[in-house]
Specification:
Shape: globular
Number of helices: 12
Largest sheet: 8 strands, mixed
CATH architecture of one domain: 3-Layer(aba) Sandwich
Oligomer: single chain
CATH class of one domain: Alpha Beta
């Protein structure tokens, strides 16, 4: 088995707010290997984006606090890197596509200015003159199947559709030869047909480059069609992980089962019961397993202790005392 490209170990992230301390991430563990496509799924507010921003070290400190944990990238802890080393990794090795393309692009600069700045600061040896930079920008837009790229370079973000803006964000993220791409809900603001086009394009580009990807989504169908392995997150903790096909065909954690049961069926069976209750308040989270207030299989030990990972198969682990 190949050595991990990225490994998150027991990551805790808290936020200091007026009412106290929000204990959002509660010991996250996650591994990404070279060339692997990873899915991270869970309800809105479960900590998916916080985890990814921690990898990029984009969380403002304060109010964010990281009391415990490590983020190991190529053998080095990102949380202890100097600003110079971190900038180099952001420019050349780890890229992120944010959820909202409208917020990710600056409205007062043209697409050409923003794209060419990204190329200039990526440190590529192949672009030295202004002409080289412009040609690389045109090439980047062609790679994401945008028509008439020279015209688009002159446009401002508000002159483009949501799908076109998202394609531009993808092209900016893939300008450098990134080894790891983080895609945070890349199709949220798009209609389903454009969303499908964007994700197919993203999958093709990642496979062509041999990059690893972490796809964050609450759309389980998209994750199923695009990833090799899935992590299920609940209330700041990974509760189950396994190969995509195995996890979808045999979900073990009660939360994973509830997520999959909530998906409408094309067979006409209707929508499942879903999961009763709601994600707990992070300022005063439940003791033991954070899912126990919503779990129909709850036992006394669930309220007292945090379950460790139990290995039920070679590539399938679950945090539940049932196993």
């Amino acid at each position: 088995m190949s050595k991990p490209l990225l490994e998150i170990r027991n990551l805790h992230v808290w936020f200091k707010v007026f009412g106290g301390i929000l204990k959002v991430l509660d010991g996250v563990d996650l591994i990404v290997r070279p060339g692997e496509k990873i899915g991270l799924v869970g309800e809105m507010g479960c900590g998916k984006t916080t985890t990814m921003k921690s990898i990029m070290k984009l969380l403002p400190i304060p109010p964010a606090i990281i009391p415990e944990g490590e983020i190991i990238y190529k053998g080095k802890n990102i949380l202890k890197m100097s600003s110079e080393e971190l900038q180099r990794i952001r420019r050349k090795e780890i890229s992120m596509i944010f959820e909202d393309p409208t917020a990710a692009l600056n409205p007062v600069f043209t697409i050409g200015q923003q794209l060419q700045d990204a190329i200039k600061f990526s440190g590529s040896n192949n672009v030295k003159t202004k002409k080289d930079i412009k040609n690389r920008a045109i090439q980047a837009l062609k790679e994401v199947s945008l028509p008439d790229p020279e015209r688009i370079l002159r446009y401002y973000p508000l002159q483009l559709s949501g799908g076109m803006r998202q394609r531009i964000c993808i092209s900016m993220a893939l300008i450098s030869s990134s080894e790891l791409l983080i895609a945070d809900e890349p199709g949220t603001s798009l209609d389903v047909t454009i969303q499908d086009q964007i994700l197919r394009l993203l999958k093709e580009l990642v496979e062509k480059r041999g990059s690893s990807i972490i796809l964050i989504s609450h759309a389980l169908g998209l994750v199923r069609g695009m990833t090799d392995r899935v992590y299920v997150m609940y209330a700041g903790s990974i509760v189950e992980t396994g190969k995509t096909k195995e996890l979808f065909s045999n979900p073990l954690h009660p939360y994973s089962q509830g997520l999959l049961n909530a998906i409408p069926k094309l067979t006409g069976d209707g929508i499942g019961e879903g999961i009763s209750g709601r994600i707990p308040e992070y300022i005063n989270p439940p003791s033991g397993c954070r899912f126990h207030p919503r779990c129909r299989y709850v036992k006394p030990i669930c309220k007292e202790k945090k379950p460790p990972f139990f290995k039920v198969d070679e590539d399938h682990e679950v945090k539940c005392f049932k196993f």
